[in-house]
User: Which sequence fits this backbone?
């Protein structure tokens, strides 16, 4: 495979995989935040 083919494959991987990574990261961050909020509200009394 030549360099142009590898560049196209790399670009396609970034376009296809990066949004999934962002969604996964946001989902995990939201879960952690919700867990922390629940822990804070339960431990108040």
Assistant:
């Amino acid at each position: 495979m030549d360099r142009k083919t590898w560049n196209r494959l790399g670009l396609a991987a970034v376009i296809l995989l990066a949004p999934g990574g962002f969604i996964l990261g946001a989902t995990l961050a939201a879960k952690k935040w919700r867990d922390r909020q629940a822990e804070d509200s339960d431990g108040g009394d």
About this structure: The radius of gyration is 19 Å. The chain has a mean pLDDT of 87.
